[in-house]
Write a structure and sequence with these properties.
This protein is of the alpha+beta class. The protein has three domains: 3-101, no CATH class; 133-199, Helix Hairpins (Orthogonal Bundle), CATH 1.10.287; 207-351, Histidine kinase-like ATPase, C-terminal domain (Heat Shock Protein 90, 2-Layer Sandwich), CATH 3.30.565.10. Helix content is 63%, strand content 12%. It contains eight helices and seven strands, in the order H-H-H-H-E-H-E-E-H-E-E-H-H-E-E. Strands 2-4-5-7-6 form a five-stranded mixed β-sheet. Strands 1-3 form a two-stranded antiparallel sheet. Helix 2 packs parallel to helix 3, helix 3 packs antiparallel against helix 4 and helix 6 (246-263) runs antiparallel to helix 8. The two termini are 47 Å apart.
Length: 355
């Protein structure tokens, strides 16, 4: 039983006890006085039915007065208790209205009751998170505008130069236009994937597969990029049978390896390891790169949040999509780091298929 429930029950017990006490005191003091008053009216009140009526009348009058006093005490105590309880609830209600209207600076004072204090803390945390999401949304608009402005400027300038005859139409100039067009298309695909991730609308085609083979193929394909950047890539993954969508798992591993490469300086390393756990297959992608702070470990999977600055730039939604993909497989994607400058490890897992 939580503290608020206990206090509510105890308050009712106190009200009942005080009401009974008031009732007892009134009966104890008032009934004898009423009885003496009735007897003083005449000796006939002390015989037979007269005595019965005197006693009954005195007790009835005392019970009514005692009951009214008890009800009055209950009303006063109940009003005081409800006022003390409703004050923080009213503050929370007003704060939620302000938050719903877009005023995320609204806060609630922490009441003394533990349960209400936890509720107030949750509301304040929600307001802070919504304010953060709003800032992220504004930053997103600026980022999207920036991401689109550059290729559009190049396309517009190149086409205008071609029309004016300043730029010759050559395979090289057309290739430049194609590159900028692909950049815009990649941006659109990123946002489309994000929308699917948020609505859990991924089209998965699960089939029995060896995750080790998928990881090895992905690492082999990216190996030239690691060599160009002077980063050592090592893979040590035993056979891990699972029912997964091979293309989606490859997408996640590609994203993790790309992020690890971008966060690791020349001369560093990226290690991919795998192991069997109780009922699941796990892959760890560890690097010796820039690492993550404690706050970044919690936020790195948020939309458009860029924690690890590196050579590559993107829309900041790769990890968000990757985590949703793993959860769509019945698994998950997590991160850990010992701190900035000490590298990071991203771990994905999926339910393992018994062989």
């Amino acid at each position: 039983m939580n503290r608020l429930t206990t206090r509510t029950v105890l308050s009712h017990v106190v009200v009942a006890a005080l009401s009974l006490l008031a009732f007892y005191v009134v009966i104890r003091l008032l009934v004898p006085a009423l009885f003496d008053q009735q007897v003083a009216r005449g000796p006939s009140q002390m015989r037979g039915a007269g005595l019965r009526a005197t006693v009954t009348g005195a007790i009835t009058t005392g019970a009514l007065v005692g009951g009214l006093i008890g009800v009055g005490i209950a009303v006063v105590i109940g009003w005081l208790s409800s006022r003390r309880l409703l004050r923080p609830i009213t503050q929370i209600r007003l704060a939620t209205r302000h938050i719903a209207a877009g005023n995320y600076d609204a806060t609630v004072e922490t009441p003394t009751e533990t349960e209400l204090a936890e509720l107030a803390t949750d509301v304040n945390t929600m307001a802070e998170r919504l304010a953060q999401i709003e800032r992220t949304r504004v930053q997103l608009i600026a980022d999207v505008a920036h991401e689109m402005r550059t290729p559009l400027t190049v396309i517009d300038g190149t086409l205008e130069g071609m029309i004016d005859g300043v730029i010759q139409v050559t395979p090289e100039s057309l290739g430049e236009l194609g590159g900028e067009t692909r950049r815009l298309r990649r941006l659109a695909e990123d946002f489309s994937s994000l929308a699917k991730a948020q609505e859990r609308r991924f089209d998965l085609t699960p089939e029995p597969a060896d995750i080790a083979v998928l990881v090895a193929a992905t690492a082999s394909r990216l190996q030239p990029q690691f060599e160009d950047e002077g980063v050592t890539l090592a893979v040590d993954v035993p056979p891990l049978q699972a029912v997964v969508d091979p293309d989606r798992i490859t997408q996640v591993v590609t994203n993790l390896l790309g992020n690890a490469l971008a966060a690791t300086d020349r001369g560093g390393w990226v290690h991919v390891t795998g192991r069997r756990e109780a009922g699941r297959a796990r892959i760890d992608v560890a690097d010796s790169g820039v690492g993550l702070s404690r706050e970044e470990v919690e936020r790195v999977f948020e939309r458009f949040y860029r924690a690890r600055k590196g050579r590559a730039s993107g829309s900041g939604i790769g990890l968000t999509i990757s985590r949703e993909l793993m959860r769509a497989h019945g698994g998950d994607l997590t991160a850990r780091s010992e701190g900035p400058g000490r590298g990071a490890t991203f771990s994905l897992w999926v339910p393992r298929r018994d062989t």
